[in-house]
Amino acid sequence: MAHEELPPAIERDPNPGVLRGALHFVYDVAWVVATVVGSPWLWWKSRRLPGFGPMVRERAMWDPPQLGAKTRPRVLIHGVSVGEVKGAVPLVDAIETTFPEVEVVISSTTNTGMQVAREEFPGRHVVRFPADLTPIVRRFLRAVEADLVLLIELEIWPNFLRECNRRGAPVAVVNGRITGKSHARYVVFRRLLPQFNRLSLICVQDEEYEARFLDLQVDPRRVVRTGSIKADRLRIGPVDPGDELRTLIGGREGQLVLVAGSTHDPEERYVVQGWQEGAPEARLVLVPRHPQRSEDVVRELSALGVRCQRLTALRAGTTRPDPSRPCIVDTIGELERVYGLADLVFVGGSLIPHGGQNMLEPAAQGRPVVFGPYVANFTQEAALLLSSGACQQIGGPADLGEALRTLAGDPDLRARMGAAGLETVQAQKGATTLTLDALSRLRLASLAAGRR
Q1: Which of 30, 244, 255, 356 has its C-alpha lying 20 to 30 A from 11's C-alpha?
Q2: How crowded is residue 62: how many other Cβ atoms within 10 Å of its Cβ?
Q3: How far is the CA of 406 from the CAs of 161, 220, 402, in angstroms?
Q4: Which pTM does this prediction carry?
Q5: Of 306, 346, 335, 338, whose CA–CA distance to 322 is shortest?
Q6: Contact 341, 241 (CB under 8 A)
Q7: Is the separation of the CB atoms in 444 and 102 below 8 Å?
């Protein structure tokens, strides 16, 4: 399917007319009303959370992005937060290598996404994705002047799609996926918003996601199955954590290291309880998905009688490493190296109805993986690891202690699971090449050649 001819890119509004215009007007009014009603909450959050106020102002385009004069075609690549931004790395590299005539601009929504984007893409323009109110979207698109827009995974907003169509900037979804919950919601509203017929191309991760898009009446010629580009970003084999992390948060010689990555509230409590029940001799390292929660995590665990250390304090020298105490990694962008220390990994977001986090990351380093029942956001990845024996899925927090006890006491089992994870992730590579091929045929090749 990757080499079939694609329909022409969508360069004008496919849904004109008074009724559609009225629908977007009502949607805009809803945005304004929600903003007015929610303004006390926005003010309170801006006062309480560092970085929240600037994020609101940037999404409102109070100060539009300053990209300078446009001297070559621009491709806007949007990832809503950290996972999507990191997942875009192999695609950005492939585009810039294959089409150096094209300028790549990165956008993100969250503060952590913006920070990681600046770290992953130094020297590129990194901009905040706008709120989906028509005047704001128009101001954003005038500033960015994108000739092609790529949305990582999905992240589709009705007014943004409509204004891209009207500006003649084709929109493509790459690494596309739809969870079962989202699909059910889109089925109900598919004749209203967000209007999937505004998408020029959808590169999906697997057959299940492809079927969900097609069920939303997407033109089958515009759907290409490519696999997950996130696997292409992952390095196969252990990542060197470096001497500093090894000294500060690693275990003693011979001590097992248990890393709980991308945890959400209240998973830290669940993990600590499982650790106490099943592997109390292990060095426990907690890496919250949102590092700004670290102070709350320390306070909550202290209430349980558990004294924690924080990586920033260890680096500052205000406390000495103690492998008998849990350590909280309260910084951004270090999870990959922390996984390099691990003998055993628990992946968070899976013991609560969040949908999980990317379990391929530790598996790619040959680490045995444990996660909970809630993996709706990573069903493909979870299924791959489960089928190969690279992971263990538990039914809930009460099962974590027993799972840790079993794996901590069986190094041969951990080794077999780790080897299976390496092999599984390696087999998934190649999605970036297929995605780039589809994008080239859609628009990239003609942009690089100086024509539309």
Answers
A1: 30
A2: 11
A3: 50, 47, 6
A4: 0.79
A5: 306
A6: yes
A7: yes
| DSSP-derived secondary structure for 200-229 | SEEEESSHHHHHHHHHTT--GGGEEE---T
N-terminal to C-terminal alpha carbon distance within the chain: 24
- Summarised one tens digit per residue, pLDDT across range 148-170 is 999 999 889 999 999 999 999 99
Residue 171 CA to residue 174 CA, distance in Å, equals 10
Interval 369-417: pLDDT, tens = 999 999 988 887 899 999 999 999 999 999 999 999 999 999 999 999 9
User: How far, in Å, CA of 379 to CA of 364, rounded?
Assistant: 17
Domains of the chain, with CATH numbers?
18-22+71-227+430-448 (3.40.50.11720), 242-427 (3.40.50.2000)
Q: Which residues contact 155 (CB under 8 A, 6 or more apart)?
A: 78, 79, 80, 84, 109
Residue 194: asked if its preceding bond is cis (omega within 30°), the reply is yes
Q: Which residue has the tokens 């270090």?
A: 334
Please tell me what DSSP assigns to residue 108. E
Token pair listed for 61: 């385009």
Neighbours of 28 (CB within 10 A): 18
- Provide the angle, in degrees to the nearest 10, between the axes of the packed helices 158-167 and 134-144: 50
What dihedral angle (degrees, nearest 10) is formed by the CA atoms of 441, 446, 447, 451? -150
Structure tokens at 334: 């270090």
Q: Which residues contact 67 (CB under 8 A, 6 or more apart)?
A: 74, 105, 125, 127, 143, 144, 145
* pLDDT over threshold 90, residue 225: yes
Q: Which residues pair with 371 in a beta bridge?
A: 393
Task: Say if residue 417 is exposed, middle or buried (CB neighbours under 10 Å; 0-12, 13-18, 19+).
Answer: buried
3-state secondary structure (DSSP) of residue 345? strand
- Rounded to whole angstroms, what are the CA distances from 424 to 24, 182, 231, 362, 390? 45, 27, 10, 12, 8
The structure tokens listed for 218 are 């997407």
Collapsed DSSP state (helix, strand, coil) of residue 382 = helix
CA-wise closest residue to 156 among 229, 221, 211, 216: 216
